[in-house]
Amino acid sequence: MILRIEKEKLLISKPWFGYVAVFVLSAALYIATCAPTVLWQDSGLFQYRIWHNDLQGKLGLALAHPLYIMIGISAKYIPLGNFAHRINLISAISAAIAVANLFLLMRLWLGKNSPAMASAITLAVSWTFWQHAVIAEVYTLYAAQMLAELIVLLMFIRSRRVGYLFLLALFNGLAISNHMWGVFGFACYTVFLIHLLIRKNITIKIFAVAVVMWIIGALPYEFLVIKSFFATGDFFGTISSALFGGAWQGVVSNTSVSTKIIFENIVFIVLNFPTPSALLIFVGIRSFRNKLPGKAFGNIIIALAILYFVFAFRYTVPDRYAFFLPFYCFAAIFAGIGADWFFRQLANKKWIYLVLCFSMTPAVVYFFTPTIARRYYKSLGQRRQRPYRDEYAYFLEPWKTGYRGAERFATETLETVEQCAVIYAYTTDVHAILVLQETQSIRSDVMVVSDYDASIGAEILNEQAFEKWVKERPVYCASPFKGYCPDWMLENYEFEQTWPIYKVVRKK
């Protein structure tokens, strides 16, 4: 009993002890469920770019994510384990830091461990967050950065020490170097700093130092922008690329949504919080104003939550569910505030443990979501099926423990084809093949091509080159379906399946 009391005192008096404990537990969860090897889609692209030390990529500046790539390049040179696994682990460690940052934010804010734990658990087991904590992606790193910003903002509000303002500016600059989501924080913090300057709470010198700190944090991104401008001489084109990427201005600035998108967005949100404890989010929103350390802090929290929610809700890209991730961080914040209110109403404090257990129930629910979706959401299974990838399980189960589907597909693809063959692959598949081919030196005689990246020294893909290859060499296509290869390829050639890919022959 005495030992238990002493432990509780330690947690209460030492927030950093709780921080380390939450980090260790979260890291254990995400490392255990992390994908062990090469992956499909954007994750494969990140692995490929890091392998090639490619800071900018080819999708426009807004999708460059240079800070994440720089961290990945550092991990690349760690001589431990599989390269692709090390890159996936960046997301796992970042996610653990994000959950620990959330715990610390709520612990410093509310002064109690139990609501801070409720908040941390809510985020840790949410579907989208967990899913992106175990694959090569930039989102959990951004969540860790955003929550670090809120911690130093809280510390400034309480202490008025300008050093926290400088950290806030630095952290936001670093966040923008990772993802352009940081512009929302930039807008809110800039208004806040200007407000402080007008009210003479800070001097122009302090404001200027904060600007310099932001510039230092954003240097990786600024470097790419300046480099792009000098390379092209196109000022407006560079700005457009920096804000929207190469071809996404329309969807980024979209202001209309269909009924289908609204329904799917609601499903995405419910899937992240399939537990009775989700009601704490609404309780927290209702009691939010009573727990504020300062009006400005509350205004920034509300503004950011709304900005992230609206941005994601009217976004129309296929993977828009991932863009709700920052909003889920704020939902978890509100859940912690709601838990604080609820725990204060309980006469028997043992109910606190029941609430914390309910917060963990999404981890159990996700075991059943693929089965439910197979029955009620047939369209997910009607999409292009990739070899060794069950769309329901891959998409709806957040964990990727032991998943080697992309690696198996890439290995068998390279082993299937003849000497000096050509393989055309869509962006979903191509980077898994390329990363495996290059990192493990498998079948360097095979030329892999796509509309985006290709094997080192490969010829440029076009109709004429493709026709020449078909005449001279064995040619294969990973996905001969509309939307996954050029129309001219589908119109002029036939495809004979040789598992797991298709051999290309001229139409008779």
Task: Give a verbal description of the structure.
It is a single chain. The protein is mostly helical and 508 residues long. The protein contains 27 helices and five strands. α2 runs parallel beside α6 and α8 (139-159) runs antiparallel to α9 (162-178). The longest helix is centred in the N-terminal third of the chain and has 28 residues, at 83-110. It starts with a helix and ends with a strand. The model is unreliable at 1-12 (pLDDT under 50).
Q: How many DSSP-defined strands?
A: 5
Strand content: under 5%
| Gyration radius, rounded | 25 Å
> What would the principal axes of the Cα set say about the shape?
globular
Q: Work out the helix count.
A: 27
Give the % helix.
55-70%
Strand order of the largest sheet: 2-1-3-5-4
Structure described in brief:
The protein is built from 27 helices and 5 strands.
Q: What labels describe this entry?
A:
single chain; 508 residues; mainly alpha; five-stranded mixed β-sheet; disordered N terminus
